[in-house]
Amino acid sequence: MHEFKMNLVLMNLQLWLALCVATNSGAWFGTAVLVTNMRNFRLSRGTISGILKGYVGISASVYTLIYSLLLKGSASKLLLFLTIGVSTVCLVLMYFIRPCTPPSGEDSSVHVHFIFTQASSILLATYLVTTTILSDMISINDSVSYILVSIMIIFMITPLAIPLKMTIFPAIQKTNVPLVGSEVSVSTQASPLIASSSTSAAYVGSFHENEDTSSDVEILIAEGEGAVRKKRRPKRGDDFKFKEAIVKADFWLLWFAYSLGVGSGVTVVNNLAQIGISLGVEDTTILLSVFSFCNFIGRLGAGAVSEHFVRSKTLPRTFWMSITQVTMIIAFLLYASALDGTLYAATALLGMCYGVQYSIMVATVSELFGLKHFGVISSFMMLGNPIGALVFSVFLAGNLYDTEAAKQGNSTCYGANCFRVTFLVLAGVCGIGTILSIILTVRIRAVYQMLYASGSFCQSRRIFCQAQCLPSFCSNYSMTI
Fold first, then answer.
1. DSSP readout, 115-147?
2. How confident is the model at residue 60 (pLDDT cuts 50, 70, 90)?
């Protein structure tokens, strides 16, 4: 008996170490890809975050299909595949995860490439959901399984057509043309959304916190002449260090709004199978597929939709966080009602809204606090997911579920009462998140008006935009003294 307990402890320790290494490795890899691409495509941050987070959302479906069709449900083969196959792919492709020259200005070809990638990812997600449902309903032989997995791989590598096309048919680079009649050299290349150094914008208004009465132009001129060496504190839109960002009200408003949104959502993710069983669904595969697909659509769509409105209406991205958290309240109330026909509708709504939170948070962090220390700031923001899972899933949902199951005298709980109180509490949590995200949206509206007015913004690297510089001029040219 003593030996059995020791073996059980060792097995649990091995499992804990494996999960620790795997989770941290995934976090490192995801951060590297996200930070690099946000810097490489800094003019399309919402679109980039939507695409990257969208592929993360459907990755579980990819592994599920491989596990069920190719590996025939073998756990040992799956572990071997994850150990050797995934590691090999990462080692081969990590060379391509590197900084590159950002696109200059609003390149129409870049927009077309994004649309192509989004379309291919939607086809992949649709194919995965359809194939997963079919494989669960009918028996598929080995030959058909290999064909289905091969088609999935083709959909996955379809975006590689973009670099191949750019290599075979390279675009003609535009040369810089000086502005006639001007004493300064004007570049036709648009500057990145937020430069790595501090930004000094004309007509910014009063949105800066604790802004000095003297203008940025006067300070920059004095610094250039050596009269002033005072280091200016970063303002919204500049590059913040983590210790500078963590003392800002905007930081904590975003953190709590995001944490309440994803924390309540991940509670349903962790308990979705038990939720389905408690409401009479014997096979929860289709329920999980619906959530996965809608989660992907939410991530991808949030990036594209927020990018459109932030450019056309200078609408802060957190506005969509508010909208989706209101929708999450409706979804939780549908769950709590346990009415016939509402389970799948509630799951679809919640999956979509849950995915929106990720894409919105990533892009918002980069715009408020810059890209220089984006990795550490965004990673701290993402702590809201595991903290929410611990508080709402373990302490709330888990305890209430076990209590109700004990009343029924079973280890498995059946009936609407298993999660009803949990859903009502989560609806209230999303209500608080909605209020916080609305407050944040109001606070940062002027920031987005500054960053995206006239289609772009006024900024400088080594230089500055002078007070008499027209906003429309600053939005299209970078001035070099």
1. HHHHHHHHHHHHHHHHHHHHHHHS---HHHHHH
2. confident
Can you spell out the DSSP letters for 400-412?
Answer: HHHHHHHHHTSSS
| Nearest partner of 191 among 445, 465, 469, 470, judged by Cα | 465
What is the amino acid identity at position 294?
C
Nearest C-alpha neighbor of 201 from the set 476, 480, 481, 475:
475
Q: Confidence band (pLDDT; 50, 70, 90) for 31?
A: confident
Give the count of beta carbons closer than 10 Å to the beta carbon of residue 201.
22
Distance CA 356, CA 320 (A): 8
Give the whole-number percent of the chain exceeding pLDDT 70: 79
Secondary structure of residue 256 in the 3-state scheme: helix
Model's pTM, two decimal places? 0.77
Q: Residues 6 or more apart from 137 whose CB is under 8 A from it?
A: none
How many residues in the chain? 481
Q: Specify the pLDDT at position 385.
A: 86
CB atoms within 10 A of CB 56: 18
Residue of higher predicted confidence among 435 and 386: 435
Please name the residues in contact with 240: beta carbons below 8 A apart, sequence gap of 6 or more.
Answer: 234, 248, 369, 370, 373, 377
Q: What is the pLDDT of residue 356?
A: 94
DSSP class per residue in 67-121: IIIISTT-HHHHHHIIIIIHHHHHHHHGGG-S--PPP-S--HHHHHHHHHHHHHH
Q: Which residues contact 71 (CB under 8 A, 6 or more apart)?
A: 77, 78, 81
Percent above pLDDT 90 for the chain = 37
Residue of 128, 19, 160 lying closest to 63 (CA atoms): 128
- Cβ atoms of 202 and 465 within 8 Å: the answer is yes
Which pLDDT belongs to residue 472?
37
3-state DSSP assignment of residue 390: helix
CA distance 246 to 249: 8
In one letter, which amino acid is 343?
L
Report the pLDDT value the prediction gives residue 443, as an integer from 0 to 100.
93
